[in-house]
Design brief:
The chain is an alpha+beta fold. It has 17 helices and seven strands.
Length: about 500
C-alpha cells in the first residue's frame, strides 16, 4: 500500500478508530465476547445495557471507582454514533425498542488483535496443500480441452488406486501429531474467518440497497425504464457477485448429508489427543454458520421487501400528484361555470378527411427575426377592451333535458324538430348544438343520417335563421327515472358524439 492509501484508511476506517480509542480494551473485550464469541447477531437495547452494566461494575471494582464513570446507555450511544460506527442501531418489525448489532469493523479489529497473540505452533504444510488444491480447481475447472481434463482425472485415479493397493497390502500411512495439529489449526482459522465474514456480507447487502434507493430517488427517466433497470431480472442484491457466492454457500450448507458429515468429522477430529481443543465453538461451528447464514438471508429478504415498498410509495406519490392536478382542474371548472359567456361560438370538424401529400408541403424557410424593443413603452394600463374575453354564451342543458322528458311522457319517441317547435330556441345555434349533445338516462338519442330536418330560430337582431341537420330522434327508455334537479352545466357540446353524425350546419336568410 502507498502512503496516501494508508492515510486514507487511517482516516476513514472504523476498525482503525477502534484500535486508537482510549477505551479500546473495554470495547474489544465486551463487543468481542458478546457479538463475536457468542455469535449474537441481534440484541435488544435493554439486554445489552444490562450486560454492559455488569461489565462496567466488574471493571470499576477491579480497577477502581471512576475508571469508567459513564452510564452503559451513554457508552452504547457513543459506539453507535455515525462518526464511530462500531455498533449498528436499528428498529425491528413490531418492536418499539432499538436493537444492536456489531459492524464488520468490530470483527476486523478483534481478529487483528487475536492475530497478535503468540502461538505455540504454526503449521504451514496444510496451507501449502490447500494452495495446490485451489490452483488445480482453478486451472482444470476452467479448461475446456477434453484431453487435459482426462489426463488430470486419470492422474487422480492412479493416485487413488495406488493408495487402495497400499491399504490392501497393510501399508496404512497416518498423519503424525504435527500434521494433525497443523490441519486442525487451519480448520479453526478458516471456520472463524468464515463466520466473521457473514457480518461483512450483510453490510455489503445493505450498501447495495442504499445504492439502489439513491438510484431510484434520482431517476429522471420513465417508470418502465426504472423497473427494467433495477428489478428486471430479480434484484441487484441477489444477482451481485456477493449474492451469488453467498447463495451457493448457503445452498451447500443446507444439505443434510453434508451437515451430518461435517458434524461427524469435527467430533472425531476433536476426540484425538494431539488436537484436543479447548474452544467449544468449533464443535458446533456449523450451527453458527447456519444461524449467520439465515440472518443474512433474512436481511436480503427484508431489504427486498423494503425496496418494493419504496417503489410502491414512489408510484403512490405520482398517482397522488395526478389526482391533485385533476381536482384543481375540477375546482377551476366549477369556479368559472356560472360566468356569462356571450358571443360564444362552437365549430365542428369536417366530416371528410383532408389529404396532404408529402410533395405538396413547402420547403423549409427560415423565419424572419423580428427585433422587439420596449425602451419607449410607458408603463400603465392597456387601452384595449378586455370585456370581450368574458362575453360568451352559456347554455345550461338541464332545462333542455327537462323539456325532452316532458314531451316523452305521453309519447314513445319525438324528433328534435318537434321538441323545438314546442319550445323555440332562445340562444340560437349554441342551444341547437347543446340539443345535439344531450345525454340522459331517461331517454336515448338516435341520428338518422338518411333524412334531414330544418330547425329555425330568431337571433338577437330579429333575423330568422334556419339550420339543416340530420334527423334526431329521442326515444324513451324502458324505465324513466325521476327528473334530476342537478344537471351538470356545460359551456360547449360534448365531444363524445361521433363527428360523422353532425355535419356542418347550413344557415339560410329570412
Amino acid at each position: 500500500m502507498q502512503f496516501d492509501e494508508i492515510v486514507a484508511v487511517r482516516t476513514t476506517s472504523a476498525a482503525w478508530r477502534l484500535l486508537r480509542a482510549d477505551n479500546a480494551p473495554l470495547v474489544l473485550s465486551f463487543l468481542g465476547r458478546v457479538f463475536v464469541d457468542d455469535n449474537i447477531r441481534e440484541i435488544s437495547e435493554s439486554e445489552l445495557v444490562s450486560l454492559l452494566g455488569d461489565e462496567l461494575h466488574m471493571l470499576n471494582a477491579k480497577l477502581g471507582d471512576g475508571t469508567y464513570p459513564r452510564t452503559p446507555k451513554a457508552y452504547l450511544d457513543e459506539w453507535s454514533a455515525p462518526d464511530t460506527a462500531w455498533l449498528r442501531k436499528y428498529y425491528v418489525v413490531e418492536s418499539d425498542e432499538p436493537h444492536y448489532d456489531a459492524t464488520p469493523a468490530v470483527e476486523r479489529a478483534v481478529a487483528w488483535v487475536r492475530s497478535l497473540q503468540d502461538r505455540s505452533f504454526v503449521g504451514t504444510e496444510s496451507r501449502l496443500n490447500t494452495v495446490f488444491d485451489l490452483l488445480r480447481q482453478i486451472v482444470y475447472g476452467t479448461n475446456t480441452d477434453p484431453e487435459v481434463r482426462l489426463a488430470e482425472l486419470r492422474r487422480r485415479r492412479s493416485e487413488i488406486d495406488a493408495e487402495i493397493q497400499a491399504v490392501e497390502r497393510g501399508e496404512v500411512s497416518v498423519l503424525d501429531a504435527s500434521r494433525r495439529r497443523d490441519r486442525y489449526q487451519q480448520f479453526g482459522d478458516v471456520a472463524r474467518a468464515l463466520l466473521s465474514d457473514f457480518r461483512e456480507v450483510e453490510g455489503n447487502f445493505r450498501m447495495l440497497d442504499r445504492q439502489m434507493r439513491q438510484r431510484i430517488a434520482t431517476w429522471r427517466g420513465t417508470k418502465g425504464e426504472l423497473l427494467d433497470e433495477i428489478v428486471g431480472s430479480r434484484t441487484l442484491i441477489s444477482d451481485s457477485d456477493q449474492g451469488r457466492s453467498f447463495q451457493a454457500f448457503y445452498d451447500l450448507l443446507l444439505s443434510a448429508d453434508r451437515l451430518d458429515e461435517l458434524d461427524r468429522l469435527v467430533r472425531e477430529a476433536q476426540a484425538l489427543d494431539d488436537v484436543a481443543d479447548t474452544d467449544s465453538r468449533l464443535t458446533n461451528i456449523h450451527h453458527d454458520w447456519l444461524d449467520a447464514g439465515t440472518r443474512a438471508q433474512e436481511t436480503v429478504r427484508r431489504l427486498s421487501e423494503q425496496l418494493r415498498r419504496f417503489l410502491d410509495d414512489q408510484a403512490w406519490l405520482e398517482n397522488r400528484r395526478v389526482m391533485d392536478l385533476l381536482r384543481n382542474i375540477e375546482a377551476s371548472a366549477y369556479t368559472v361555470r356560472d360566468l356569462p359567456a356571450a358571443e360564444f361560438g362552437h365549430g365542428i370538424d369536417s366530416p371528410t378527411p383532408t389529404v396532404n401529400l408529402p410533395m405538396e408541403r413547402p420547403l423549409y424557410r427560415r423565419t424572419a427575426t423580428v427585433e422587439v424593443s420596449s425602451d419607449d413603452v410607458e408603463e400603465g394600463e392597456s387601452d384595449g377592451d378586455s370585456d370581450a374575453l368574458f362575453e360568451q354564451i352559456h347554455v345550461d342543458p338541464a332545462p333542455l333535458i327537462d323539456g325532452v322528458r316532458k314531451v316523452l311522457r305521453g309519447r314513445d319517441q319525438v324528433t328534435l324538430a318537434e321538441v323545438v317547435a314546442g319550445a323555440p330556441l332562445q340562444q340560437g345555434l349554441a342551444e341547437l348544438v347543446t340539443y345535439l349533445s344531450l345525454t340522459d338516462e331517461s331517454f336515448a338519442k338516435v341520428f338518422d343520417e338518411k333524412a334531414e330536418e330544418a330547425v329555425s330560430w330568431t337571433d338577437e337582431t330579429g333575423t330568422g335563421r334556419t339550420a339543416r341537420v340530420p334527423r334526431v330522434i329521442f326515444t324513451r327508455a324502458v324505465s324513466t327515472p325521476a327528473p334530476s334537479t342537478t344537471a351538470p352545466s356545460t359551456t360547449a357540446p360534448s365531444t363524445t358524439a361521433p363527428s360523422t353524425t353532425v355535419p356542418p350546419t347550413e344557415q339560410e336568410g329570412p
